[in-house]
Amino acid sequence: MLMKVLRSVNFLLILVCSLRCTPPDQQQTTIKRVDVDTFEAKLNTLNNAFLIDVRTPDEYKNGHIDGATNIDFNQVDQMKFAFEKLDHNQPMLIYCAAGGRSNKTRILMAEMGFTQVYELSKGMSGWKAAGKPISIK
Description:
Blueprint: H1 2-20, E1 30-34, H2 36-45, E2 50-53, H3 57-61, E3 69-70, H4 76-85, E4 92-95, H5 100-111, E5 116-120, H6 123-129
Parallel strand pairs: 1-5, 2-3, 2-4, 4-5
């Protein structure tokens, strides 16, 4: 009887350790569209998050979220090349004007193996409508 209990306890300890001891290269993948408030919260709380504006350079110059890097969706080969150089485990925050281009970018990033991608569902228009700050630098 005692051996049976010890085997059960041993099994439970192994199970708990295997669930809690996941190596960093097996991180959970999070690829999703989020609303303005969630996007802003992620922008302010995620460590080392990389903010990407996938609009054209002209759109970017007319106002963008502070700290965003412009990677033009319309230049697909250049965009893929830029994405290949990024850390695929680094949190990525992406947006466009209204959500169409960033939605396609989110799917592309998932296919490329990025593990954390948050897309602003209504893009810059949703950001502006919510009264969030815009940078013109």
